[in-house]
Amino acid sequence: MIARYDILACLLTPEHLTLWFRPIPMRWKLLVLASLAAALIGCALWCALTIGIFGSAAALARNDWLLLGSSVLPLSVAGVAGFFVYRHTARRRKTQAVVTVLLALLFTPLAYLAAWSLLPNKLYIPRAYEVRHAR
């Protein structure tokens, strides 16, 4: 009865399993630090341009397309962080770059919330019905 499954038995030896499921280490410190740096830089640039050009985020929110277009800045900084990680890793380059971009995009709203708590009158984005009634 065992002779029937000898073909599969040679594939399920521990040596073959370690080749299939061998963990390849990722550089988590680099991923997290690059993501945090990208989130902080992207949020700081967005806040600086918003306050510098429009005076407040509420003035920017009056123009829907400008508010949507201003999100290109943090997205591009997250992309640069992903490219940085891609160039500085040897294994699983694409995976680590994507994880970095996703972490940076996750950390960016958190950085905005921290900046908003420091400057609530400058970085408050009103709701859509508040902006339309103010016009």
Q: How is this structure best described in words?
A:
The protein is mainly α. Helices cover 77% and strands 0% of the residues. The mean pLDDT is 83.
Q: Which key terms come to mind for this protein?
A:
135 residues; mainly alpha; 9 helices; 0% strand; elongated
Secondary structure tally, helices:
9
- Content-based structural category: mainly alpha
Unreliable sequence segments: none
What's the SSE pattern?
HHHHHHHHH
Rg result? 24 Å
What is the averaged pLDDT score? 83
- The tally of strands reads 0
Form type: elongated
Largest sheet: none
Euclidean distance between termini CA atoms = 83 Å
Helix content: over 70%
Query: What is the strand content?
Result: under 5%
Total domain count: 1
